[in-house]
Amino acid sequence: MIRSIIKNLTKKKTLLFAGILALGIIFMLIGEYTQAEKKATTGFDEADYTNKLETRLAEMIESVDGVCDVKVMVTLAGSARYQYETGASQSVMAGGAAGEPTLLYRTSNDQSEPVLRVVSAPEIKGVSVVCKGAGNVLLKQKVIGLIAGALDLSVNRIYVTE
């Protein structure tokens, strides 16, 4: 009798554990779907943007004669900015002025969403570079100048070390 109760308890615990595990997997899938949907609607992924910047900078820096084993880290000051299409409203509402801009919406598949006009990339806050050859002051200045020119970034936001 006691053995059957213990077996029933372990079965119940196993089922409870399996149910919680299944819920966790479902929530993870929903979260990934939501992130993919956000990227699809905005067309901008900040992590991808940062990775591409770092890769392109590393390739450029490695092309400088005497510099090798480059690692780059780009820091962003914020997130992307989204500008939506607006139009002038046709009616005067209480407290509003004639011609006040309103958001334009697009309807598809029974869903209404604002029309995205421009996605502006986030501002670059700073760049850090670790590379062999940066011990040479002239090479270090070349790398700093390269980054400053490529990103239109002031030199005080760039750090290069060996």
What does this protein look like?
The chain is α+β, with helices and mostly antiparallel strands and 162 residues long. The protein has three domains: 1-42; 43-80 and 121-162, GMP Synthetase, Chain A, domain 3, CATH 3.30.300.30; 82-117, no CATH class. 45% of the residues lie in helices and 28% in strands. It contains three helices and nine strands; from the N terminus they run ααββββββββαβ. The protein has helices spanning 2-42, 46-62, 137-151, and strands at 68-76, 81-84, 86-88, 101-103, 105-108, 111-114, 116-120, 124-132, 158-161. The strands form four sheets. A three-stranded mixed β-sheet has the order 1-8-9, covered by helices on one side. A two-stranded antiparallel ribbon has the order 2-7. It has a two-stranded antiparallel ribbon with strand order 3-4. The model is unreliable at 89-94 (pLDDT under 50).
Count of extended strands: 9
The SSE order reads: HHEEEEEEEEHE
**Largest beta sheet: what is the strand line-up?**
1-8-9
Mean pLDDT: 77
Largest sheet: 3 strands, mixed
Q: Brief description of this entry?
A:
The chain is 45% helix and 28% strand. It has three helices and nine strands.
Q: What is the secondary structure topology, with strand pairs?
A:
Layout: H1 2-42, H2 46-62, E1 68-76, E2 81-84, E3 86-88, E4 101-103, E5 105-108, E6 111-114, E7 116-120, E8 124-132, H3 137-151, E9 158-161
Parallel strand pairs: 8-9
Antiparallel strand pairs: 1-8, 2-7, 3-4, 5-6
